[in-house]
Structure formats: C-alpha cells, structure tokens
Amino acid sequence: QVQLQESGPGLVKPSQTLSLTCTVSGGSITTNYYYWSWIRQPPGKGLEWIGSIAYSGSTVYSPSLESRTSVSRDTSKNQFTLQLKSVTPEDTAVYYCAMLPDQGRATMMIYAVYEYWGQGTRVTVSS
Q1: Are 22 and 121 in contact (CB under 8 A)?
Q2: What pLDDT is stored for residue 23 in this prediction?
Q3: 67 — phi, psi (to 5°)?
Q4: What is the mean pLDDT of residues 6-17?
Q5: Per-residue pLDDT tens digits for 21-61
Q6: pLDDT digits (tens, 9 = 90+) for 97-126
Q7: Cα–Cα dist 106/73, whole Å
Q8: Nearest by Cα to 69 from 108, 119, 30, 24
Q9: C-beta separation of 38 from 48 below 8 A
Q10: What is residue 104's three-state secondary structure?
Q11: In the prediction, which pLDDT does 25 show?
Q12: Of 18, 27, 66, 125, whose CB count within 10 A is highest?
C-alpha cells in the first residue's frame, strides 16, 4: 500500500514562493512506470492538475502554470516537491500529491486514473 503525505506551510504571502513536499512510503518514486503529481482544488472549484515528475525524473507541467512551477525530487528521501513562484490569493487551495501509472500526458488530468492520493494540505495566500 503506497502512502503519500504532503507537508509545508499553510500560509504564504503574496509574491512569495509556495513550497510543498510529498513524502512517499510503501513504494519508490523511481519505480517503472509511474508519475508523481501535484493537484490542487481552490475553494468552491474543481481539481486542477499542476505538474508531474516521472519515475525517470522527467517533468511535465500544466501550460497555464508552467511559467511559475517547478517539480523536483529527492530519491534518497523518496520525496518530491512543488515550488510555485509569485503566488497570489488565487493560488489558495487544498494541494494534493498523487500517483498514477504512465499512460501519457493526456491522462494527467483524468483524476479517476490516479491510484493513490495524499490527504491534502490547505494553503492560503494572504498578507
């Protein structure tokens, strides 16, 4: 059973960088052929895929967020991280990390495909 746990600050000031870490247990983030994703849900809205890192270390991002987003990993700690730069109050959301099998980029936004999810962490952007 794979388990994912998000961690990071719950409050970020506008224009700062939001940084979150996902710690994975029960499985390796280098296992063929899986992707590890960041997804968010703003208040009152649906899920939004942010970006993913593959078992190989390659990354793929949502076009709408790509200019502000970086997903990286630390294989020694079995963790992957999200950095979202220049945040605004519109980035306020519950942020999830999740795992899905590699079925192509188009499946990143098909949330039923994801096999495991973290419990989510609420991040508020406010001064």
Answers
A1: no
A2: 98
A3: -65, -20
A4: 97
A5: 999 999 999 998 999 999 999 999 999 999 999 999 999 99
A6: 999 998 888 888 899 999 999 999 999 999
A7: 22
A8: 108
A9: no
A10: coil
A11: 96
A12: 18
